[in-house]
Description:
By secondary structure, this protein is mainly alpha-helical. Helix content is about 50%, strand content about 0%.
Amino acid sequence: DLRHRVLNSPGGEEVIEKYESTGSLTTQLRKKLTNIVVDLLIKDCGPKPTIDQRVQYAKAIVNTFPGLRDPETPEGFEAFFEPGTRSGFLAWRLKTVNRNNPNLKRKPPLTPSAVTPPVGLQTYSLAEIATKREFLENACAATQRAEIEEAMRVTFQERNKDRTQILKNYPRFFNIPYLVNIEFNLMYPGVSLEGFSADALLAAYAIHKPNTDANDSTTEPDWNKDTRGFITLLKLLPPTAKGRKKAERDTVKKATDKLILFHP
Length: 264
């Protein structure tokens, strides 16, 4: 019985007395009634009740307090909750309560601070990791590739703990081009670029190449086909629309210049 539950809620006695003496409620007491009913709704159904549950409580209000029916709505309860628009006194109060509930605060977006280690990846002691990390700092990229791959495998679990600091802790990513491929294979074993067609991209660019780029090929380094394919992607992308109050986006030329290119 909603009347009994309202009567036994804090502030409910004042609501009942006012309604029974006048057949209506002031705006302040109507808000108090709404707050009481929302508290009961959350207690019974949780912080995110269904639409049907909200309708049920809205109907209970006007059935218990007929003077609060809205004659301008089809069934009279819609002022408290209108299922079509999901609005009304109950909906607005429920949103306010949930917004102020610390247990329902929106979780921060996931960041690439850690990647789930591949199943079956061996773990190593801190001493082994420290030794391999020191080796990486002084390794020769041209003559010690096998040893570098092994050191990357051993130190992977350390890098995986906080990827926001990976370039600070492992600066050799800047001057050993194939470290990126090794790291990618450790993060996503079995994944490859089989679906990437550098030939198709280069052919498309040759057809649509603007006249202003006519001399680009004589000044660009001799990158391998896959790298040139990725650079071509930037040149083929159409310009983006600028929204209101948004910072200006880089042009394709600027974006190409900012592409990180690793020199062997």
